[in-house]
Amino acid sequence: MIRLYIDPGTGSMLFTVFIGVLSAVIYGVRILIIKIKSGVGAAEARSNSETALPIVVFSDSKRYQTTFAPVLDELEKRGQKAVYYTMSPDDPVLSKKYEFIKSEYIGDGNKAFAKMNLLKADVVLSTTPNLDVFQWKRSPSVRCYVHVPHAAGDLSLYRTFGLDYYDAVLVGGKFQEEQVRELEKLRHLPAKEIVYTGIPCLDTLYERVKSIPQDQPHETTVLLAPTWERSGLLSLYGEELIKSLIDTGYKLIIRPHPQSFTAEKEMIEDLMARFPDSDRLSWNRDNDNFNVLSEADIMISDFSGVLFDFALVFGKPVIYSCRDFKTDPYDAWFLDEQPWNIRSLPGLGTAFEKEHLKDMKKVIDDTLRGNASLSSQERLKVRDETWCNIGHSAASIADYLISKLNEESSIPVSGDGFDDEP
Question: CA separation (Å) from 228 to 102, 129, 139, 209?
Fold first, then answer.
């Protein structure tokens, strides 16, 4: 009797192939079911357009309400019907009283994406990247998917394939269009529609800043607001950095990126246990970051988008870290040019070095003193590169969405529009 022997390595390979084939079959069946349920095909979606929702705004988190609420307000003002779907049950938009806008919590995770995957709509606006890459798939019954960024800065700092399957991208700066076009060329993708609309969340923030009383006496407050993952300040220097900041004697607010509480839960919980809240230190998890940005005199961050909110809207100095930044998880890895978020930082403050941990008070004091002499021209240059159409982004986005319903654009496409001053 001949026995068939398969060595462990070959067996593992065959098992992997089997799982891959099985997954492909299951995925294919799921897609077939979705197509059957949704009536298949964009052509059919057009022929049944009277049953499709005109405009759908989709948010995967309540923290993006500063991006979407101004747009919804503008659509409401114009009497344009739209639907707002959110994955946060306590999204502030849900409590707004609209006549023409319907707001709905659609669950979280796969439940929400299942609804979006079977959606029938003319136009979908979202800030969620990686459409058609992870759980969220393009519905054959949606005519146009439009992406709006939720912060200033690089579009190439989304995870790989972040914007590849959107039909249109709304931008605030020319470098963003250049990034999209270069990735399209590298991946042989059809050209997306690029529209210069501005950044709603910065416009919202700036309007609120106008109401802050100026020159109110207070003690010096430091805001530590890093991003998450391996290149973030807490991942790199966590305990040592916090100790050094406590030693300054200044009031310290630590506001980790919201994703840190999920992706880096063990590290964050350990740091919070080592450095609990006190009269000199507080951990902040507010959905709305306006109060901490207003209270702080200086921010210590890395390449997080909130750094640009702080510097460009509030006009306050930053200490930034980007020495160990790695592009390989992001679309930026495919591009030759250094990310804009990194190359623009010298115009906004002081570069953090590891040796600064020995005396953070001196670094903070020097940066605060230097803020008065920091070239306004440099800061304005950074602002103008990323924040066009200041104060008018919501109106421009509403213009564009409504124009898509009629298939004729009423605002410039691929222009610049750096006209307005805050």
Answer: 34, 17, 31, 27
3-state secondary structure of 191: coil
Q: 82 and 189: one domain?
A: yes
Q: How far apart are CA 345 and CA 340, in angstroms?
A: 9
Greatest Cα pair distance, the chain, in angstroms, is 92
Are the C-beta atoms of 172 and 198 separated by less than 8 Å? yes
Residues 295 and 356 in one domain: yes
Write out the E strands in 77-200: 82-86, 101-105, 121-126, 142-147, 168-171, 193-196
CA distance 168 to 133: 17
Q: What pLDDT does 28 receive? A: 53
Q: What is the CATH number of the domain that holds 331?
A: 3.40.50.2000
pLDDT of residue 306: 87
Tokens 């901490």 sit at which residue? 292
For 314, the token pair is 């509030």
Query: What six digits make up the tokens of 374?
Result: 């920091």
Do 292 and 376 sit in the same domain of this protein? yes
Identify whether residues 214 and 188 lie together within a single domain.
no
Q: Which stretches of the chain score pLDDT less than 70?
A: 1-50, 215, 324, 371-376, 408-422
How many CA within 13 A on the CB side of residue 88? 15
Answer whether residue 422 is part of any domain.
no
- pLDDT reported for residue 4: 46
Domain count, the chain: 2
How would you classify the pairing of strands 298-301 and 318-320? parallel
Residue from 237, 234, 273, 240 nearest 254 by CA: 234
Amino acid letter, 85: Y
Angle between helices 393-406 and 65-77 (to 10 degrees): 60
Residue 106: left (phi > 0), alpha (psi -120 to 50), or beta?
Answer: alpha
Give CA–CA dist 391/202, Å, rounded: 8
Q: What is the pLDDT of residue 416?
A: 44
Task: Specify the pLDDT at position 257.
Answer: 85
If one counts every other C-beta atom within 10 angstroms of the C-beta of residue 300, the result is: 28
Q: What is the pLDDT of residue 50?
A: 52
Output the six-digit token pair for 115. Answer: 């609804």
